[in-house]
Each structure stands twice: as C-alpha cells, then as structure tokens.
C-alpha cells in the first residue's frame, strides 16, 4: 500500500528541525542546553493520540504506564497537535505530569482553562478576534447575505452559535447553514463521493449568496468534491448554468489549511475552483532562514516575551494564547494546479477599534467567473438613492423591498435603511436623493398678489378721497348736515387710513412693520366702527327726539357722538398697548409652513391678544348691526340705518370668513388673505354707506333739500 504524504505536514517537520538547530546554535536562547526531538503521528485517531503521548513519556516495547524502563530521554516539552482534537487529547495526559505543551493550531475553548490545563500553551490568537475580523470583512465589502458551512460536530455548532448573533447585530443575514459530516474520507471514485456526501447538488449552489464562510478542515474536503460534482453536472446539463453557480467568494478561518495536494493526486482536483478565496491566517512574517521557532521550557514559557528575527513580539496572554492578530490572505491559483497565498490584509487587536481591520482591495484576485468585483452578496439588489428599505413579511431582515422616501425625507446613498429628514432650511428634490436649499419668500412689492392688492388699495384710497372731497364741498347741504358732518369726516378719514394700512402687510417684514401691522389696523378699524356706531345711535336718537315731549333732545349733538368714538376707540388702544407691552409681534423665519420655501413673516407674539383685537372689532360691528337693524323701519328721510345694517352685514361676513381662511393658508397667502379682508370690509363700508349719498349729492341734487328730509311717507 502506498501512502501519500501531505505537504504541509512535511513542512511542519522541516520547521521543527530548523527551529531546534537554531536554538542549539544560539547560545543566548538556552545556554548550556541541547535540545533533541522525537516525532510521533496520531493518524488523526483519538486512540492513537493517547497511545503516542504515553509512548513519548514511557517508551518501552512492552508498554507500562508510569514506569520507565531502560534508557529514556528527559522529556521537557511537547509540540502539537495541529488540530484541536489531538491537542486536547494530548493535554489531558501531559497536564497530569506538568509537561509543557505548545499547540500551533488549536482554537478549542475547553483547553483555555489554565486551572484544568496549566501546562497548555498555544501559538494562535484568541478565536473571538477571528470572528470579529470576519464581521468587519463582511461590513467592509457590504456583504449582508452570506452562507455558512461548518462541520456537524460540537465545534461546528459552537461556531454557528457564536457567529450568527454577531451577523444579525451587524445587519447581516445567513442565507443558509450547511452542516458537513466530520472526518470524511474519499477514495477518488465519483460514485463513492456522492455516497459519502449524501447529496448530489447542494441547495446552496442555487442560492444567490455570493459569499460563503467555511469552518472546519473537513469542510474543504467535502466542498471540493461537491464543486467537482457540480461542475460535471453543468457540463452535462449546461441549461442549468443560470441556476447553479460555483463561483463564490470562500472565506475560511485560520483552522483551515488548503490541504488539496493529496486530493489532487487521488482524484485529480482542480484547485482553480478555490481561486480568489479569502483566508484568515495566524500572523507571520518571512524570517531570515525560516518563519518561527519554538521554546519548550515550561518555566520560561510563563514569562516569555521576546522579538523573533522578523521583529514581531512573541508573548502569551493569561489564557496561554499567543497575543497576536491574524493575517488575511487571498488564494491565487495557476493553470498548473499550483497556488500561492497572497497577504492582502491584517487584523490587529492592538490597533484602534476603527483600524483593527486593514485590507488592500487592489491586491485581491477574485474568482475568474465573477462578472462584478467585488461581488455583491445580498438577498436583493441595493436600494438606490431616494429609496428606503421596507421589510418583507416572513423573510429575514436582510430581504426587503425598496420604497420611495416619504415627503420631506431623502436618502443620498445606496441601501440606506431608513430615509432621513432634510435640514429645516432644505427640502428634498424630485428624486429624493438630495436636499435643496429653500427659497426665502414674503409678500414682496413686486409679487403679483402685492401688485394687485396695492393697486386696489390706492384705488380705494382715491375713491375715499373723492367722496371726502364731495362731502366737504357740499358740507352745507341738507343731507351732509343731517348725517353728522364730523362723524362722516372721521369715518371717511379712518376708511382712508384702513386702505393705506394694508400697505404695511407687503414688503419684507421688519420690527417696525410687525409692530404696526395688527395694532394700527385694529385701532383704525375700531375708530371706523365706533364712528358707525355713533352714527347709528345718532339716527335712533334723532328719530326719538322728534316725538313731542321727548327728553332725547338733550342727548343730541356732536358731544355724544364724539364721546362714543373716543371711548370705544380707547378700549382698542388699551388692548393694543397691553399687547405691545407683554408679547409684541416680531419677524420670524417659518421653515415648516411650506415645503420648498422659508417664509419670512410676522409672528403675532400672542395669538390671544391678536384674537382679542379681532374680537373687539367684531363686538363693535355686532352692536352697530343690531342697533341699525332695529332702526331699519324708520322713515325714509332717516333711513341711513338701512345702509349701515347692510354694511355691517358685509363687514361681519368678510371677517367671519377670514378666520378659517387665515388658519388654513400658509406662507405669503396668509398675509394676502388679511389684506383682502381689510380691503373688502373697508370697501363694503365705503360703498354701502356713502355711495347712495354721493348719488343724491352729485346726480340727484334736487333731493338734497330740507323739504325732502322732513317729508314722511
């Protein structure tokens, strides 16, 4: 029977010979001590591992434990084994005799217990660091849909229990978890391979996960044969090439070595299938002569700390593990079935947390079949900018739909989990992938609404001035005298100022205009309404004074009318003064009112005081309306009450519709609504009260006589 020698095991023997020679030739390492060595093989068999360990301690043709017979070398330490299983079996025996043991491939957590295994040391870093490095590697390339293949034993289950929560907490999902039989053996016959793997075409080859994490050395053996079978299948059935893909990025842990040489000899393995694989390896550097050497003295190991010839520090931590990091290597294959491992990165636990993982993407050689590099390994395509993720019901969180960002939100990068709101002074563009600065707006003088409102304001001012001129010119006529000339002049002047005060609402708001807008408008309107109330009361008193023996004659005259105007207007003045003293209006930028604009407006300071001003005007209008309504049936010569009733009806209708309109509009349109209300209500008072009189004065002068005024139907 011919046995094949695995290349890496032969390299380990050479490394041991070299290290022992280096130690013996260097007087600074172990002065006055010469080391020798024996080499034993466990044959990957637990029983043989026990036997060879005992044979090392108690060498005899007739094996008797705890008994030394004949010539026996002094065993000061043991190196091995490479696998965790062999190392732990050796540690159980060597630990009983306090013989130091150094393992250069064991990651098994059970042997970390320095109480149970006080003589066990390992030249490998902590396994948790390797898991952390895998996560950082996946995050670096934004791979969130990955497969897991591990051995179907305790170590494989421990790996899955450790890595899957770490994947989930970093936004990564496992597309599948494949468990492989431990300690597989292949004869090279294709049907034997199918029988051993128990599967012809594993489902993971049809999974769209492009990245697969491998744990366990026997997985490589199983995987190599699975890929070989899959390749043969695709050669026979090329129509399935779109469904089945063997082009993956294989990520292997440091426990795995590509021991493919032996299988190449037996079953003609194509190493090209693993081209582009990324591996974690125990950190090393090229040494002058060889890569590392071993120290075997137990007491020396406990306090060991030195720099090897490559300049790397060699130190064991309190768990007996090598205090070092991992190299990240890339498997590069060649047509002649040879391969090299190229160092493309480093996982350094001593570095800053944000710089623990360093990787040079330009040095990585990806699988030749991959059309996109680095490949995408996601459950679904990345969401483009302007979209956010929406979880698919019943699927893993890495599988999602892409929904457009809601109004006011954006995403400017691929695969954003949730859209974010733009800053207050910006708004999203149509594609929702960027934020645009908002435009500052206000009712400027060159705005169409402002031009129209200002035009009508000046027009009504001109009309009011003409009416005032007519009444002044005909001040000695009967109809002007009968309607209280002074109240008429006050009313017309206040209406003229009402039209002009609408101009305060256009242009850029500032401290002065904000203070004068509402207070000026409220006081002027109160004077106008007080004048109308005084005129209404004067009409009623004048009619009542015509009755014989009436005592109302003493109330007639300008004093009463002026008193009403002054007293009613003063109340509004007091309200406005309190408003300005407690919470005055001020200019403010409203970034929330409009989607695409920032509105520069006057904040009322106190809405309560603002509505108090409006409420008081409403009170005066209501009183005037009620008094005029009661006096509407007076004789025609005193029928100004009918016009006042109608004017108050118009006034109240305008301002009752103002409140909901004011609350429902935004931006400069809010100001436009108030300007319209001011102009409409003022124009209603002017037209309803004065146009009939102007018609008589100008066009029907024959009716403007004392005889007509005292005529009773």
Describe the secondary structure blueprint for this structure.
Layout: H1 7-25, H2 46-57, E1 78-79, H3 84-94, E2 101-103, E3 120-122, H4 127-141, E4 145-151, H5 154-169, E5 173-180, H6 190-197, E6 211-215, H7 217-236, E7 249-252, H8 261-267, E8 278-282, H9 298-301, E9 305-307, E10 313-315, E11 326-333, E12 339-347, E13 357-359, E14 387-391, E15 400-404, E16 409-410, E17 420-421, E18 426-428, E19 435-437, E20 439-441, H10 448-473, H11 478-482, H12 485-501, H13 511-545, H14 558-582, E21 586-590, E22 597-603, H15 607-630, H16 640-664, H17 668-699, H18 706-710
Parallel strand pairs: 1-2, 2-3, 4-5, 4-6, 6-7, 7-8, 20-22
Antiparallel strand pairs: 8-11, 9-10, 11-12, 12-13, 14-15, 16-17, 18-19, 21-22
Helix pairs in contact: 2-3, 6-7, 10-12, 10-17, 12-13, 12-17, 13-14, 13-15, 14-15, 15-16, 16-17
Explain how this protein is built.
This protein is an alpha/beta fold. Helix content is 43%, strand content 14%. The chain has 18 helices and 22 strands. Strands 5-4-6-7-8-11-12-13 form an eight-stranded mixed sheet, sandwiched between helices. A three-stranded parallel sheet has the order 1-2-3, with helices on one face. It has a three-stranded mixed sheet with strand order 20-22-21. Strand 11 and strand 12 form a beta hairpin. Helix 2 runs parallel beside helix 3, helix 12 packs antiparallel against helix 13 and helix 14 runs antiparallel to helix 15. The radius of gyration is 49 Å and the shape is rod-shaped. About 3% of the residues have low confidence.
């Amino acid at each position: 029977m011919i046995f094949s020698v695995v290349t890496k095991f032969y390299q380990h023997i050479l490394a041991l010979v070299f290290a022992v020679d280096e130690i013996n030739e260097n007087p600074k390492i172990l002065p006055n001590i010469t080391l020798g060595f024996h080499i034993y093989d466990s044959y990957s068999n637990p029983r043989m591992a026990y036997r060879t360990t005992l044979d090392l301690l108690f060498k005899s043709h007739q094996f008797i434990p705890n008994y030394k017979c004949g010539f026996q070398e002094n065993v000061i330490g043991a190196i091995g084994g490479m696998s965790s299983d062999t190392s732990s079996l050796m540690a159980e025996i060597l630990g009983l005799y306090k013989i130091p043991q150094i393992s250069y491939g064991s990651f098994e957590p059970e042997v970390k217990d320095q109480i149970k295994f006080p003589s066990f040391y390992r030249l490998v870093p902590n396994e948790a660091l390797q898991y952390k490095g895998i996560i950082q590697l996946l995050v670096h390339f934004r791979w969130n849909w990955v497969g897991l293949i591990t051995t179907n034993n305790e170590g494989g289950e421990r790996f899955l229990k450790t890595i899957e929560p770490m994947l989930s907490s970093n936004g990564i999902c496992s597309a599948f978890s494949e468990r492989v039989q431990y300690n597989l053996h292949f004869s090279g016959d294709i049907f034997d391979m199918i029988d051993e793997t128990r599967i012809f075409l594993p489902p993971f080859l049809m999974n769209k996960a492009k990245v697969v994490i491998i744990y366990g050395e026997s997985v490589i053996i199983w995987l190599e044969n699975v890929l070989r079978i899959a390749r043969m299948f695709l050669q026979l059935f090329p129509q399935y090439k779109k469904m089945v893909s063997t082009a993956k990025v294989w990520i292997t842990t440091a426990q795995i070595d590509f021991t493919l040489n032996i299988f190449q000899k037996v079953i003609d393995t194509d190493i090209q299938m693993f081209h582009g694989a990324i591996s974690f390896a125990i950190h090393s550097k090229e040494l002058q002569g060889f890569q590392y050497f071993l120290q075997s003295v137990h007491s020396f190991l406990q306090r060991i700390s030195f720099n090897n010839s490559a300049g790397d520090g060699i130190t064991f931590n309190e768990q007996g593990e090598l205090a070092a990091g991992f190299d990240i290597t890339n498997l590069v294959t060649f047509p002649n079935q040879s391969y090299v491992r190229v160092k493309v990165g480093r996982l350094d636990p001593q570095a800053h947390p944000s710089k623990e993982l360093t990787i040079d993407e330009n040095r990585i050689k990806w699988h030749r079949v991959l059309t996109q590099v680095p490949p995408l390994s996601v459950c679904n395509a990345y969401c483009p900018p302007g979209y956010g993720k929406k979880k698919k019901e019943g699927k893993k969180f890495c599988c999602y739909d892409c929904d457009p960002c809601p109004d006011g939100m954006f995403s400017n990068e691929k695969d954003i989990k949730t859209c974010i709101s733009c800053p207050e002074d910006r708004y999203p563009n149509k594609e929702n992938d960027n934020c645009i600065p908002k435009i500052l707006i206000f009712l400027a003088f060159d705005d169409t609404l402002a031009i129209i409102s200002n035009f009508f304001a000046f027009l009504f001012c001109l009309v009011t001035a003409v009416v005032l001129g007519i009444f002044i010119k005909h001040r000695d006529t009967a109809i002007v005298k009968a309607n209280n000339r002074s109240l008429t002049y006050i009313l017309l002047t206040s209406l003229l100022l009402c039209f002009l005060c609408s101009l305060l609402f256009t242009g850029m708001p500032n401290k002065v205009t904000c203070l004068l807008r509402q207070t000026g408008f409220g006081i002027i309107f109160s004077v106008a309404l007080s004048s109308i109330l005084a005129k209404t009361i004067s009409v009623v008193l004048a009619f009542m004074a015509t009755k014989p023996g009436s005592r109302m004659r003493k109330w007639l005259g300008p004093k009463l009318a002026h008193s009403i105007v002054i007293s009613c207007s003063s109340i509004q003045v007091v309200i406005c003064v309190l408003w300005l003293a407690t919470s005055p209006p001020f200019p403010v930028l409203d970034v929330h009112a409009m989607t695409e604009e920032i509105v520069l407006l006057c904040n009322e300071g106190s809405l309560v005081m603002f509505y108090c001003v409006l409420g008081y005007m409403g009170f005066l209008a209501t009183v005037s309306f009620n008094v005029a309504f009661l006096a509407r049936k007076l004789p025609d010569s005193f029928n100004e009450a009918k016009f006042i009733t109608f004017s108050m009806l118009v006034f109240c209708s305008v301002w009752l519709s103002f409140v909901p309109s004011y609350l429902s509009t935004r931006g400069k349109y809010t100001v436009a609504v108030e300007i319209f209300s001011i102009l409409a209500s003022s124009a209603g008072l002017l037209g309803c009260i004065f146009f009939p009189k102007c018609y008589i004065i100008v066009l029907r002068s024959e009716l403007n006589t004392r005889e007509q005024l005292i005529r009773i139907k």
